[in-house]
Amino acid sequence: xxxxxxxxxxxxxxxxxxxxxxxxxxxxxxxxxxxxxxxxxxxxxxxxxxxxxxxxxxxxxxxxxxxxxxxxxxxxxxxxxxxxxxxxxxxxxxxxxxxxxxxxxxxxxxxxxxxxxxxxxxxxxxxxxxxxxxxxxxxxxxxxxxxxxxxxxxxxxxxxxxxxxxxxxxxxxxxxxxxxxxxxxxxxxxxxxxxxxxxxxxxxxxxxxxxxxxxxxxxxxxxxxxxxxx
Length: 230
What we know:
Elements: H1 8-16, H2 32-36, E1 49-51, E2 58-60, H3 61-73, H4 81-89, H5 98-113, H6 119-228
Antiparallel strand pairs: 1-2
């Protein structure tokens, strides 16, 4: 692609973004002034997403601008794939079949730069594909790093919280077990209290009976001493 051509970025953009305007068609009898005047490149308005020229889906504005800038900076000197693409685009709306459009564009391209072989198209297009592939590899590497840095950090936090929850759940289970043991012991204590109270009271009763026996015996003897030994 020739570096001196104006509006290279806009032309590249028009190859991959569908314009909202109808393509400019040549008139039957152009004036000399109109023939010599350079057509003004349309100014595409890109939404955040827009259908691509191939009709294979929606593309993102920020990535479109990125690729246009990338290809613009990497454009090759002289006529190449992009000039041919421009010629091919000018064939739209002329009622030609796809094969005829490609052939007519090739004839126009050859007249433009004196190129005779399609090798220049294959070579330049593959060079641009290589640039895009290299950029994609770099992007995917950045994506992998972003996943590791951002998503990985979130996954680490998730693991810490899960471990913490498991530890808390174990503590709750241990506390519940301790509560159950305490309840069981409380039930045992109630029975033991009654048992020990009964034993103590029985022992007290035995003591009282024995005590009264001794007291009664001594008092009885004392009464008899006073009675019989005057």
